[in-house]
Amino acid sequence: MDLKLNLLVLRCRDIEASRVFYEHFGIVFEREQHGSGPVHYAAVFEGMVFELYPLKEGEPVDRCRLGFAVNLDTDLRESLEDAGIAIISQYEIEQEPVFVVEDPDGRKIEVRHSEPLGSGWYEGDWTRFRSVILILAAFAGSLSFLNYQSGPMNGGPVLDVYFFYFALLVSFLFWPIMVVAVVGFQTINPYSDPVWTRPTHSCNPFRLKNPLCIAHFLMYFVMAQGAGALVTAILGGWLQLLMGIGMIIGGLEGLWALELVMKRYPEKMAPQYHVEISGNTSQD
User: Fold this and answer.
1) Is the dihedral of CA 209, 108, 78, 22 positive or negative?
2) pLDDT digits (tens, 9 = 90+) for 142-189
3) What residues contact residue 85 under an 8 Å CB cut-off, 6+ apart?
């Protein structure tokens, strides 16, 4: 696990169904109740306490992701199918298949075979945290761009205006190339993940081992500041408007460049498989 946890608590709609699901991976739970508290299940797994609690009234299910490296007596795929656990997708890490399934509450669970001991990892949903950071970035951008006024440029030399437009054009042309070069360089970084996953808004934006997630967050950070500049354009004039539009276009170009990275380095991307009801798989 990238982060050592001492306690992991999952709140479930049906703790009995969740217990049966997670015990399939070799986790043995014990039924507990502390005083007048709710009945729950607890287990010790890889040095941490793993607990299953019932959901509180009106509480939504969290959208975290978990992973387990398990050591079962039978083939992992056959074991999942025999247990009635549907495989949503799969990819490979170091030539070992990783199966993506869902627990009874809809959490994504990644499962792979391990020799000889089992292990696990946990990744929370970063959507809310990222949203707060982007809102703060837009607010900070709106305040910082108030320092740029249109008046001095309107009265400045024509050459300065042309140079400003030229610099803006050059940044548009070279920004995607720079993103592809910087992110692509990480393919030879021995400390990066052997396989990268497609970035989403729920992934950890500070996970250095997956540069796609970092770059994905930075592009939205730039666009958030550009949106703040558009707000201050009401007070500052055309310069803030131009800079805001430029930053938003730059962020969109950066996202497009990330798509180029994923196409340019397919060996680093986790191949996805669609699993049909019949059990056949087809690769994207």
Assistant:
1) positive
2) 877 666 655 544 455 555 556 666 767 777 778 788 888 888 788 787
3) 21, 24, 101
pLDDT reported for residue 279: 34
Question: Could you tell me how far CA 255 lies from the centroid of its own chain?
Answer: 14
Query: What is residue 46's predicted lDDT score, i.e. its pLDDT?
Result: 65
> What are 108-147's pLDDT values in tens digits?
888 887 665 444 445 567 788 888 999 998 888 787 766 6
- Hey, what CATH topology would domain 7-123 get? 2,3-Dihydroxybiphenyl 1,2-Dioxygenase; domain 1 (3.10.180)
Domain locations along the chain: 7-123, 127-268
pLDDT given at position 24: 82
| Mean pLDDT over each residue of the chain, to the nearest integer | 76
Query: Has residue 38 got a pLDDT over 70?
Result: yes
